Amino acid sequence: MAPPQAGKQKRPTSKARRRPAPLAAAGIALLVAGSLAGGVYEVIDTRNDPRRTAAGDTSEVPPTAPPSGPVTNVADAGQVAPLRRVVPPDVLAVRGGGGSITRAQIAKIAKLAKVRDVVAVSGGAVQLQGRSINTFAVDPSSFRSWTPPGTAKKTDLWTALAADQFVVSATAAEQLQLARGFQYPIVARTMPSLTMGGAGTLGLPGIDMLVSRKTGTDLGLVPNVAVMVNAPGANPAKVVKGVGKVLGAGANVVNLHERKYQAPADGGRPGSYMDLYRQAATTCPGLSWTVLAAIGQVESDHGRNAGRSSAGALGPMQFMPATWRAYGVDGDRDGKADIMNPYDAVPGAAKYLCANGAGKGGKQLYRAIWHYNHADWYVQKVLALARAYAARFR
What we know:
By secondary structure, the chain is an alpha+beta fold. About 30% of the residues lie in helices and about 15% in strands. A hairpin with a 5-residue loop joins strand 7 and strand 8.
């Protein structure tokens, strides 16, 4: 089917603009399935906005400004900041009952054991091409860090989002036959025609569209309806329990490490660091992916601190440039072996470990890790973390 041609859209009448969008359910309802990709999502209906019904008013009510969370966002200005780190989300929580997650609740979540990063987003369901689409409104400059590495690297995608275009999951783009650069009417509290800026793997169960925070406000999405939590080294199940206790009954809190919530990656590529470790380990028979995960955590905290070390090492797996020239891998087949690219660096680490006998286990594995960093404390720390990963992800 050919994509619809861009052009003028019929402007709704004043009465039509005031009419709430016909969405899938009255009020806010949490569902565990039903989106294009399946998973957790919010459905909103402005008809039940208490700010209206209390006064018997059915006119449009501007949403309140979302409370600020512990994560400082870069302001949207039609441009997007460079990708400086990757923040793998461990837990996604969506507030039920029609309300927003409060500043106090965000602060409590940020203080949970081993929680390092928290980001709050507006969200809700809108209609696109006659289908209900679960949408987050985000700051592209900061939120890109929370998406899978391949998507986070797509600067053009985030630049489009910063310019108030919309971005969809690869699944939504295919099922709804959306074409980049074309305009589509988005039906919510208002009915703007927005340009599709691109598609990619979002890595969020049930979320199939992203818009800018400005667009989210215009559409009437619920402020701070969801939070994403990063807690490196924590047991995700314990984080889920802690977040659930903070948010109370009605919240849907998801452990994103559960296999059923793992989103498919673009072109069959891994969609997260954990997937990268698993795939790279298969290139070295006998090497457990948990060893790569442990090294990734020690060296850069899974890409968060990938800059140059005091010794001159670089990238998510902290290779010395001379070592990289010998063992670098073009893992994503883009024609270059990039020390800063996790799709290259992780398989490069597997290659280096394998060359030093890591696949043989025992003393050979110890020796191979020692070659990675010449210190016994380092080897012992990596092996201890590898055992912890093995116990957590059986």
